[in-house]
Write a structure and sequence with these properties.
Layout: H1 3-10, E1 16-24, E2 27-34, E3 51-64, E4 67-79, E5 89-91, H2 106-119, H3 121-130, H4 137-145
Parallel strand pairs: 2-4
Antiparallel strand pairs: 1-2, 3-4, 4-5
The structure holds zinc ion (ZN).
Zinc ion (ZN) binds next to loops.
Length: 163
């Protein structure tokens, strides 16, 4: 199976469209564009409709065929048009793939977390290097103390809140 069809299979469950797959010296690089439905604002949960801008972010993914994987993901920033919402704009996330501020895919983060729980910092870092998982000691230890991030912001209740 060629790398392009392999990447198609790997990303088939996500709301992304692959635009390019490159075999670079440092591993596989996949360019992808978020193509899911308009997201809900994490501040007030209302549906966004106006795109503010878009930009590319890098995500380290799980290795493929023994090669490390980098996803260059183009995401959109949306306006929140709800007057009383504190968030003026926000960036969409790809379900099951990305999270706010995260530089690892959620799949990679799960693996890193499992390694951190079993081995801790330095031994975990050595194993990750052998497995071609991007994870430094500080990252692994940080995962052990990081609070769980809810999938979606809690709904704001009160007068004027959307149902
Ligand atoms: Zn909002």
């Amino acid at each position: 199976m060629g790398v392009e069809s392999l990447a198609d299979v790997l990303f088939s469950g996500f709301d992304v469209r692959l635009t390019r797959v490159t075999e670079a010296a440092e591993g596989l690089v996949v360019d992808a564009v978020e193509c899911g439905p308009p997201p809900h604002c994490p501040g007030c949960n209302s549906l966004a409709s106006r795109v503010h801008s878009s930009y590319e972010r890098g995500l380290a993914g799980l290795p493929v065929n023994g090669q490390s994987l980098t996803v260059r993901l183009r995401v959109r920033r949306f306006f929140c048009d709800r007057g009383r919402c504190p968030r003026r704009t926000f960036v969409e996330q790809v379900a099951k793939l990305s999270e706010r501020y995260g530089r690892s895919s959620l799949g990679l983060k799960q693996w890193q977390h499992a390694v951190a729980v079993e081995l801790g910092g330095r031994p975990g870092q050595r194993l990750c290097r052998q497995l071609r998982l991007k994870a430094g000691r500080t990252r692994l230890l940080g995962l052990l103390t990081e609070p769980a991030v809810p999938e979606q912001a809690p709904r704001v209740l009160g007068p004027g809140a959307h149902p």
